[in-house]
Amino acid sequence: MAEPKCDIGFIGVGVMGKNLILNLADNGYRIAAFDLDHQKLEQLLKQDTQEHPKAARIVACRSYTELLACLTPPHLIILSVPAGKAVDDVCYKLIDAGVAADDIIVDMGNSLWTDTVSREKKFESKFIFFSTAVSGGEVGARFGPSLMPSGDPYAWTRIKPIWQAISAKVDPVTGQPIERYEPGNPVTEGEPCAAYIGPSGSGHYVKMVHNGIEYADMQLICEAYQVMRDILHMPASEIATVFQQWNQGPLHSYLIEISGQVLATKDSETGLPLVDVIMDKAGQKGTGLWTAVSSLQIGSPAPTIAEAVYARAISALKSERVKAATTLQGPTENIISKTEKQKIIQSLHDALYCAKICVYAQGFNLMKMAAKEYGWTLNFAEIAKIWRAGCIIRAVFLQSIVHAFQRDDELENLLLDPFFAKQISQYQQNWRKSVANATLAGIPVPALSSALSYYDSYRTAVLPANLLQGQRDFFGAHTFERTDKAKGKQFHVEWSHPDRPMVKIK
């Protein structure tokens, strides 16, 4: 008797691919898997047999042709391969193997959104190219990620039930994640963290901004850690306890949770806190940089995301920083009393909360301006919903962001929502104290301070850009608008005649 055909083809059995395959299998789908590394396929089959000894759910294929032969047409094939050239290479090999025009190829890698737009056009006569950005790391991929699909609406109708099945779920009443990490026993109740984002490229753009927010959120947490470590001289274990306490309130999030766990972990070799033996050089894969570049291109200010990228870049200058530490002087250290210590910790909590709000405001505003630039219609309440579980930036206050955009789907900026405006009004003084204390102590807080500057700039009715426009007109005749004339009319001054400047309408 012939083996039954598989539902889904899957190419790429790396960390994310393997876990997505097992997640799909847990949800009742039969998978035909292919990878150039046959050892990875064998390990996957072994794990599948261990978890489900009675019924194999995964078929290992040795070629693209065999993969297609194992599938029920029209074919659905998922790619989990490195972004860039590898995606194109696999697509061309599938064309050679015989994919048809109504087959769907889904890129679930971390592709640059503009590459996704190009691929949809390039392959439109060969097959339907679709994309789905994934967040949640290997655990999310295995037991429920946050999924951001975009592309052909028809393809989405075919993929939707699959994505909703394998995605993370949240309680529809509380908005809190429904978590269960049991192979073969997936979460089937709750709201799925998978929603159609829009036209080709929009899903990967939204994921890119997600990662930019992630960069900034991580940097904010690291700055709070450094203040406690270098001003308050707290050991890692004590800072871990603070993060654990913070995770019980409005700062409750995945990143706060794992930061506490990292700080509480001891090194098995030395017995020291593991964080104290980890080199202070941060890596990056580019998505934070892409976000910062896009914000500059579109003209949507995201200074805290940019500062987070710069912070990683300056961390890479380790040898220079070690040399500078022996040459460049900082301020004289002050002794902190126990009473002051508790006040500083509370101020840090409030500063982190306010800055976090500003980071999300920057991210959502960037998506809003990108939507206008590229002709997308983005549902920001839905985007906030699918980030409540499965993804790296999942946090309790995302439910408040959902409510903000449900109250006003045309909300210009998250800071203008009554709830968030009140939150920052209530806690901003401690935010200002934290930035001031760190600066006076010589501790760099580029993310905390840039978020504060963003907030203060946004709430300032008259910025010094009037002088800047005067400077630009002086040396480059770039013109300017006047506050007492009709909007849009441009003026220029003949600055070479200061006693009798001539204003010309352009």
CATH superfamily of the largest domain: N-(1-d-carboxylethyl)-l-norvaline Dehydrogenase, domain 2
Form type: globular
The CATH architecture of the largest domain comes to Orthogonal Bundle
Task: Tell me the number of structural domains.
Answer: 3
Classify the beta-strand content into a percent band.
Answer: 5-15%
Q: Structural class, from secondary structure content?
A: alpha/beta
Helix content: 40-55%
Determine the N-to-C terminus distance: 82 Å
Instruction: Provide mean pLDDT, rounded.
Output: 94
With strands numbered from the N-terminus, the spatial order across the biggest sheet is 3-2-1-4-5-6-7
Number of H/I helices: 19
| Biggest sheet overview | 7 strands, mixed
- What is the CA-based Rg, rounded? 26 Å
Give the tally of β-strands.
Answer: 12
| CATH topology label of the largest domain | N-(1-d-carboxylethyl)-l-norvaline Dehydrogenase, domain 2
Low-confidence stretches: none
CATH class of the largest domain: Mainly Alpha
